[in-house]
Write a structure and sequence with these properties.
Length: 187
């Protein structure tokens, strides 16, 4: 009788582990903010070509582990640098400031992304990069964007995923509203 009870208890434990498993949370596709695009039309007078958006390979992933409970994945298996570059393109297209080719009436915006990270306990995304307009010196940009958090790992990690799009919008605003970058984009 004890063997049967131990066997059934052990089976229930294994079944519980199999059913609980890890979860994954997905960052939504980037949607441009209409107000942000509107502001760009009034602060940037020339077209912008997007140059390289790079990040060290060991950091440029398409996911980050959240609280050992599962990964936060970017859409379509894009990496962080690809997602951020796509977001810049989407906002610039919406603002009618995106250009495919370099001309006398355009500037090139490039980025060396140094860090993309989150704090699920504190409820914060942090993005840092060195941005460059054409041949001008690098400008260091850092943004920190708050989002809701929870003690429960599943809810907290879902909030992390949902907060990344807003964090990227904030990073774009920090970049395009930086006085040096704004001046260089309008020369």
């Amino acid at each position: 009788m004890k063997k049967i009870l131990l066997l059934s208890t052990g089976s229930l434990g294994v079944l519980a582990l199999m059913l609980s498993g890890c979860t994954s949370n997905n960052v939504p596709n980037f949607q441009p903010d209409a107000m942000q695009a509107y502001q760009i039309t009034h602060t940037v007078s020339k077209g912008i070509v997007l140059g390289d958006f790079s990040m060290p390979a060991e950091k440029d992933k398409n996911h980050l582990l959240c609280r050992l409970s599962g990964n936060v994945y970017l859409p379509n298996k894009t990496t962080y640098s690809q997602y951020i570059k796509h977001a810049f393109a989407t906002v610039l297209i919406t603002a009618n400031r995106y250009s495919v080719e370099k001309t006398a009436k355009t500037h090139t915006l490039s980025s060396d992304i140094t860090s993309v990270n989150f704090d699920s306990l504190g409820g914060k995304w942090m993005i840092s990069a060195n941005m460059r307009v054409d041949h001008y010196p690098l400008v260091s940009i850092s943004s920190s964007t708050r989002f809701g958090t929870a003690w429960n790992a599943g809810t907290a990690c879902q909030n992390v995923a949902q907060g990344f799009e807003t964090a990227v919008q904030d990073f774009i605003s920090q970049t395009l509203n930086n006085p040096r970058i704004k001046r260089e984009l309008n020369i």
